[in-house]
Amino acid sequence: QVQLVESGGGSVQPGGSLRLSCAASGSNLSIYTMGWFRQRPGLQRELVARITSSGSTNYADSVRGRFTISRDNAKNSVYLQMNSLKPEDTAVYYCNAYLFMNYWGKGTLVTVSS
Fold it and tell me: Tell me: the pLDDT tens digits for 80-112?
């Protein structure tokens, strides 16, 4: 069983940066596809960024060029560097691990407001 714990959320002004971290336990995540999803107020959960076991990445159009996903298999962790944050990035961000099934963290709140 995979357990995922997110950290790094908080409040930031527009244009600012945050780095989210996701620490995993219970399995060797080097073979998993890892991702970050978010749920904005009143909207469904959506994919933000994903990184495969081989390191290939893909991003939502809304964050491409501003956000960067990375992983450290030695630390069983995945990260999301978020730059040039906008108010519409305000959401609960969830860490996801996928290998035949999805595993989710409980989420961390990011608020972008002046």
Answer: 999 999 999 999 999 999 999 999 999 999 999
Q: Tell me the residue type at 54.
A: S
Rounded to a whole number of angstroms, the distance between the first and last alpha carbons of the chain is: 40
Type of residue numbered 71: R
Residue 75 in 3-state DSSP?
helix
Pick from 39, 83, 34, 73: which is nearest to 57 by CA? 34
Please tell me whether residue 87 adopts helix, strand or coil conformation. Answer: helix
Radius of gyration of the chain (CA): 13
* Residue from 111, 4, 90 nearest 48 by CA: 90
57 phi and psi angles, rounded to 5 deg: -125, 155
pLDDT bin (cut points 50, 70, 90) of residue 1 is confident
